[in-house]
Here is the input.
Amino acid sequence: MEIAVIVQTIIVISLMVFIGAIISRTFAFNDDTQKMLISLIVNIGMPSIILANIFEVEFSDSIFHIILIVLISSIIINLTGIGLGWCFLCFFHRNSNKIPEVSLLSGIGNTGYIGIPLCALLFGPEGALYAAVFDAGVDITLWTVGVSILQKRKTFFSWKYIKSIINVPIIAVVIGMTALYFQLRPPKIFSDLITQLAGLATPLAMIYIGILVMTISRSNIKESTISWLPITIKLIILPILVAVVVSMYHEFNLIASQVIIIQSMMPTLTLASVLFAKYSRNQDFGAVTTVLSTLLSLLTIPLVLYILNVLLSLGWNN
Here is the structure.
């Protein structure tokens, strides 16, 4: 992969975040506007980018084999990050009351808003397909294990859990994979529509993050000094661990290997503050960690990708 393309992509993403920060001064960012932006991103932009890229992939048995491996790898990586967050917090801050929040932020990343568009830009339709499957694994982990951790009254694997997993991006993955398996292609008018709507995903997500940046007060930042722990795990420790394991495992093709590593280095979950508020957890801590990790990831993503590129040039190739 070309480093120039990576840097250019990150610069574009950074500018979108900056635009969001600027326009945040032109309107009141409240619960209604937040829900509207999230709905546009999650229910329109993300499903469209998933379907648009899946429809461009040619079917083969090897593709489905890799898809299954990517999905399982995603769940394992997410659970590993959650476990690392739990263990590190118990070691460094044994008496902390933020164990559920830190654990979740350490393992669940922004693989949808940032990961899928980034992989689509870097690797084309096949990369976007693997990224979407990885994100499906994140959703499965988040709405089962993640919600179990956040809940104060534990009710494991209830019907409510099952309903929460069935969201629009997951439905888009299922529809897209079914169409891919049976080699179905939508009418041109439909494919043109989803291609146009797919263009909403990245700009809206980055603008939303830029707006979110401007909502964080200094007092909230001071109260969230422990944010360094999930950020360090999510942006540095977990990606390095994943890169080492993937380099030793030869069931992936080159694109799938790189997508898995890139998705593992995504910043913490954008909707963390919303999720924490829903389950009566510290939403300010979630917002601060999300913003800081997103801003820092603009530096760590190209750095880790540069290291990956060097390894590839030295002969690391599956």
In short: Residues 3-313 form a domain with the Na+/H+ antiporter like fold fold (CATH 1.20.1530.20). The chain has one domain: 3-313.
